[in-house]
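Table 4 source record.
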Amino acid sequence: MSRIIVFVLWALALAGLGRDGVASAQSGHVEIMSLGDLWQTIHADSLIAVHDFLGHGFGGAIVAGILDWPIWGLPLVLSFFVIVVRSIFRTFYPKVKLS
């Protein structure tokens, strides 16, 4: 199951990287879309609701920082996290069958 999750996350990252590459080629300069811009494009009201809910506290700062990442950054970080967790799990529980 973790291999499928990593594959899907890498596919999303490649799609985002492809989107940035096409946009950069069309404009003639490097254009990198952030997660916040993508969320704003998809559903702006929910982005505003999340900012209002989290406020300016610690959670709001974390979300604001993540929303500045490029659209291909979060899938790569999440896939790395899945790979690390899977390898740790296999180290401590070698007899458990993982997909």
